[in-house]
Amino acid sequence: MKLLHISDLHIGKRVHEFSMIEDQKYILDKIVIIAKEERAEGVIIAGDIYDKSVPSAEAVQVFDRFLTRLAGLGMKVFAVSGNHDSAERIAFGSQLMKGQGVHLSPVYDGDVKKVVLWDAHGEICVYLLPFIKPALVRHVLEGEQEAEEMFPESYQEAVKLAIERMNVDTAKRNVLVAHQFVTGAGRCESEEIVVGGLDNVDMEVFHEFDYVALGHIHSPQYVGRETVRYCGTPLKYSFSEAQQEKSVTVVELGEKENVLIHTIPLLPLHDMRIIRGTYLEVTARSFYEDMDREDYVQVILTDEEDIPDGLRKLRIIYPNLMRLGYDNSRTRQSRNVEAVQEIERKSELELFQDFFELQNNRPMSAEQTDLVRRLIETEQ
C-alpha cells in the first residue's frame, strides 16, 4: 500500500506580513497531482493544518478544496490536529466525512481513533493521535479509578501512556500519525519552541509501529530510524529554511517490516532566498538579471552606512522583499554585546545544555539534565 505523508500546512500563515495563501493553494494542487501520479491509496496529514486555532474563512475554503479533490480521486485521508490547530474544529464533521474516506482525529478522550485498511498482505492499522499535552491526558484520567498513580508529568509520559492505552497488536502492520517533538530532531526558526525542551518525546515510545508519520518539525528528517519520520513543511516559512528542498514523503508498505520510503521534490510558486552584498552590488542589473525577482527575499546589505528608504527602493527591483538587514561593523558589535548579555542571564545548567547540544547536535535527555543538575548542586 502506498501513502503520501505531508504535515504542517499552516494554511492561512503570514510570513513577515506577506500572506502565503496563494502559495499554499498552488502547492496543495501540486500535491494532489503527485498523489494521482503515484497512484497513492491515501494521504496522511500529520497536524498543523491551519496556522491559527481559529482559521480564516479563506483558509478553511482552501483546505476544503484540497480534501474534496483528494476524495474525488478516491483517496483516503488521515489527518490529526497539531498544536496550532483547534482539536474541536478539526474534528467537526468527522463522522460525516468518514463516509467519503476522510478520517479526522477526534478530541483526545483516552482513546485513539484506529482506521483499518486492507491490501494483499493483510491488515494495516492507522492510528490517529492528535497533539497532546500532559495536562490533557491528566484530565482524561481524572475520572478513572487509581488514576492518580498514572498521572503524566511530562510530554514523554503523556505520549507513552496514550500509546500504551492503544493496545497495539504488533503482529499486524501499524502506522501512527502524530504531532510531537521527538528528541534529537533539528528545528527551524519558524517552529514554536518550548523553553528547555520540555516537549521532548523519546523515539523509543514508537517501537510498536512500522511507520510513524510525524508533524511539528519543519525540516524533513528521520529520528533514530528511517521509519520515524518528519516530512517537513511543503513550503518554506522562514529564511532559516532557504537552502532546504521541500518534498512529499511517499511510504510503501509491503509485508510486515518491509517499508520503502522515497521523496518527491515540491517546487513552489515563489522560492525563498537570501541576497547579500552592498547596495550597489544588489541593485546592479548584472546581479539580478538571471534571478527570479518574484521570489521572497531577505536582503543583507554590507554597507557601513544605512541606505535611506532602502526597503522601498529595493522593492522596485525585488517586489517580494520580506526583510532588509545589515551586516557591518556596527551590527556585528551589537550582536556581540547581545550575546554576552544573553550568556550572563543563563544559569550554569542552561549553559551546559547549550554546550552539549552544540557538541552532539541534539538536546540533553531528561536523565542527563537531572544528572548535571545534581552535580551542579553538589558543587555549590
Written overview of the protein:
The chain is of the alpha/beta class and 380 residues long. It is 32% helix and 24% strand. It has 12 helices and 19 strands. The protein has helices at 21-38, 57-72, 87-91, 94-98, 134-141, 155-164, 279-282, 285-288, 310-317, 329-345, 348-360, 366-379; strands spanning 2-6, 14-15, 18-19, 42-46, 76-80, 102-104, 113-119, 122-128, 173-179, 181-182, 200-201, 211-215, 221-223, 225-230, 247-253, 259-265, 272-277, 296-301, 321-326. The protein has a 6-stranded mixed beta sheet. The chain has a 6-stranded mixed beta sheet with strand order 7-8-9-12-14-13, with no helix packed on it. A hairpin with a 2-residue loop joins strand 2 and strand 3. Helix 11 packs across helix 12 (366-379). The longest helix has 18 residues, at 21-38. The N and C termini lie far apart (58 Å). The mean pLDDT is 87.
How would you concisely characterize the structure shown here?
By secondary structure, this protein is of the alpha/beta class.
First-last Cα distance: 58 Å
- The average pLDDT score comes to 87
Helical content, roughly? 25-40%
- Provide the low-confidence segments as ranges: none
Overall 3D geometry? globular
Largest sheet: 6 strands, mixed
Rg, please?
23 Å
Number of helices: 12
